[in-house]
Amino acid sequence: MRKAVAALRQDSAGFDQEIEIEGDGQVYRLSIAGGFDFAADRGHLEVDLPGGAIDHSEQVFADGKIYINGVQGSGVDNWAVMARDKAEAHYLLRAPLNDPEHVLQQIAAMRKISRQGEEKVEGVRTAHYRGILDHRTTTLRTAPDVRTKIDRTRDALGGDLPVFADAWIDGKGRLVRVRMNVNMSGAGVTSTMTLSDVGKPVRVTVPRPADTTPVTEVSGVLNG
């Protein structure tokens, strides 16, 4: 499983991610789609939250930076920009600014892995593996206030949050789908990423400097 993740991080792929957040008797569903050249650290993705106050956002990753369109208070043609390594996650099991490589980092760190059998994913026969994520992996690059809340929940539970991780790998050793899930008393998050077009070139258009505004933080449910 770790070999499959390591191989993808030296390649490129398209991806579709579905995130389901349940809490306070409501369920919110986000979709994220795009392409990413993990070897070159470049990619483009679009995020949609039907019915949200801001229902669409775009992120461009290039040259160690993330460009974000659709930030509240910015113009239609203006992009916020910040250093990629400074982005933080503001929600449980969300990646900083939806960075897909963050998801791969977490999946690669799963523990107590067991094989669950074979399943078809998108018409492809795969081997299904399941494991758990420890507290360190679950809180990887989370904002300090979020980490504090997760720490308190962990203390109340008397142990790590029940976070499960799954990976589906095809016969060529390629990662096809990954999933992370946590559910506690009616509050939960499920994040599922399906990969495709492995090895296909990913084209990225970087916004012009005149169309960008430097920022030090970007929050909001669309942005992780």
Model description:
By secondary structure, the protein is α+β, with helices and mostly antiparallel strands. The chain has one domain (2-216): outer membrane lipoprotein receptor (LolB), chain A. Helices cover 15% and strands 44% of the residues. The protein has 4 helices and 12 strands. The chain has a 12-stranded mixed β-sheet with strand order 7-8-9-10-11-1-2-3-4-5-6-12, covered by helices on one side. A hairpin with a 4-residue loop joins strand 9 and strand 10 (175-184). It holds the Pfam family LppX_LprAFG. It is found in: Cell envelope. InterPro entries: LolA/LolB/LppX, LppX/LprAFG. Belongs to the LppX/LprAFG lipoprotein family.
Q: Kindly report the oligomeric state of this protein.
A: single chain
Q: What average pLDDT do the residues reach?
A: 93
Helical amount:
10-25%
| Named CATH architecture | Clam
Tally of discrete structural domains: 1
Round the Cα radius of gyration to an integer and report it.
17 Å
The gross shape turns out to be globular
CATH class: Mainly Beta
The CATH topology comes to outer membrane lipoprotein receptor (LolB), chain A
What is the helix tally?
Answer: 4
